[in-house]
Structures are given as structure tokens and as C-alpha cells.
Amino acid sequence: MMASEAQRVLFVHVQKTGGQSIEHLLRRHVPDVRKVTGLPGAKHATYADALRAHPELTDHWSFGFVRNPWARLWSWYQMIERRKAAADRGNTWVATRIERNDFWAGVLEHCPDFESFVMDGTERFDRLRRPQLDYLRDGERRVDFIGRTETLSDDIARVGERLGFEPELDQRNAGGGGDFRAHFTPAMRQRVADLFETDLRAFGYAFD
Description:
The chain has 208 residues and is α/β, with parallel strands linked by helices.
């Protein structure tokens, strides 16, 4: 989560929605942008937690992004697998990051494949089953703008227009690795639909 006092803007970073690319963009174009500290969940804290801890952010223009829940879980699993592969190749920096990240280490210990990540990991790890909308609302109030990873370039252009810059977006960290649909069994598909019913209703996402 990042904020700027000069621009009076607050960015709520939902995991695996292109947020790292957006953070890089804000750092390039908003000189005083900073991490919002002291929040549970660190950079992936919720809008509600931010307003509770920092009431001065209440009048900031706020935004965040969401993603198709099935695609998001596939991307999340792939990211952790890439970290493991890098560590296995001898990348000590990545290996150390895995050791210090209880979530990554837990997934690698308990979820040997994508099916177990979806069926068991979503039971074991709270963050894997938390609706994206939960990050972007405080009661009935939502952030002012919710973009989508699927239309990231167009939606971040709207953010740039609001903040007075023309974005040049690096999307290397927003990708997904092929058609996510090929990696879901019917049971996995239904598991995600049940867990993220809130997001499906709020944003109109569907598997097909």
C-alpha cells in the first residue's frame, strides 16, 4: 500500500493483480509516494485497516486492482514455483527470501501441485481464500476506482490522467502464463467459485 500527500492519493495493493508494476510506476511519477507503514498485512493491507490506522487518508483519492479469481490463483502458484526453481538453481538471495517468508515456505511444504494449492492451500492459508473486494472496502465504502488486471494498461491510464502523468507500464510482473482454464478440474473450478463468490458478483468474473 502506498500514498502521496502531494497528490492526495492512496493505492491499495491486492496480491497478484499487477500491483508491483503499479508501485514502480508511482515511484517514477509521484516523487513523494511512500509505503503506508504500521498496518497488518504490510504492503497488502486492506483499505479499512489503512483508514483506521491513518484517518488522514480518508479524503485521499483511492484506487486498487482486481483480477479474475481463477487466473489470479494460477498466477500466484506459478510465482511461488518460479521462486522455488530459482532457489533450486542456486540463487541464494531467492532461497533466503523463501526461508523468511512463512507463506511461500508453507505453500512449498504443503502444496506439491496446483490442485493441492487450490483445494488444500485455500483451506490452510487465509490470504488465498480472502475475496479481493475485502481489500478494497471499508464497510459500505469502496475505494474510488477499481481497475482490472485484464485491462491494466487502459485502467492505469485513467489513474495517470487523474494524477497528471502519462504512464509507461512495465507489465512483466502482471502476467499469468497461458490459459489458466487448462489447469482446473471441475472440483477446483467450483472451489474457487465458492470462495470468491463476492468477487464474482461484484465484478462479473466468470470461468468461461
